[in-house]
Write a structure and sequence with these properties.
Blueprint (H helix, E strand, L loop, with lengths): L1 H41 L4 H6 L14 H8 L6 H32 L5 H10 L9 H9 L21 H6 L5 H11 L5 H8 L4 H9 L4 H16 L3 H6 L8 H11 L9 H32 L5
Helix pairs in contact: 1-14, 3-14, 4-8, 4-11, 4-13, 9-10, 11-14, 13-14
Length: 308
Amino acid sequence: MAATTHSAPRARRIKASHMLAHVVLAGVGFTLLYPLVFMVMAGFFDKEEFASRILGLFPIAHAPTLANFKILILGSADSHIQLYVRNSLIRTLYNTFCAVLTSFLGGYAFGRLRFKGKEGLFLALLATQMIPGVVALMPTYLQMARWPFAGGNHVFTGGTGILDTWWVYLIGGPAINIMGTFLVKQSMEKVPIELDEAAKVDGAGAFRILFKVLFPLQLPIMAYIAITTALGTWNDFATPFFYTSSDSLQTLPAAITRLTAAATGAMGTPNYPLIITLSLGTTIPALLIFFFFQKYIVQGLANTGIKG
């Protein structure tokens, strides 16, 4: 009887703590999702109503319209909107493929092979992670502008190099993924070397061991690298903005400024509902990728033995 009396208050305390935790989590979740909710609701406004009203936390249009969403999907605000989306997709897929391939091969080399200077080279690669990306903008620009035998260049001077061409994305995009290489190396070192030897006894060559034996074991890490690279490339603003100028080479995030100019009326007042809706178009794909594949991010980091 006494046990029952003591367990009841304890059960109530546990239930109260669970309710408090759910309330706190719901509040945090709402705070994180609120900007997205506001963007969706603002997309139903037209330019005049948005400019004439004082908006609250949840703005509701008196005369809702789907014009902004039609412009986002059909591209009627700018003839190049579909081109921007296509460029973003092509660049994202290309960079993701290159990141997965170079990370796997680099991780295999540092985690499985033995060669002189391996540790020093790997530490040098890790040290590059401490250099802010902004610092590399100007050297990278000069490197692309002075690319030999391109854009009117001879060897070191003159011309524009590979600036404002697809080579900016094809050459400058797939850099070595240092973080991905590190994760694959950590995971490779946990795989017994006897697995390679057993495959050799069965007649497997180096290529088959690499892609038929070791690669399937790294799938969670490969998925993590692919997801993070895809998100980073899709949201990348700096590369197309600084190194290209032609409309035909723009990606959707970098083209927002050009779309803003296209959405400006004769009086010079920007069409903010349209601009917000176009920005929403760059946000939703990244959110969907993260929502559906977030478990692979956790699995990929867990397989390397890294504690969060």
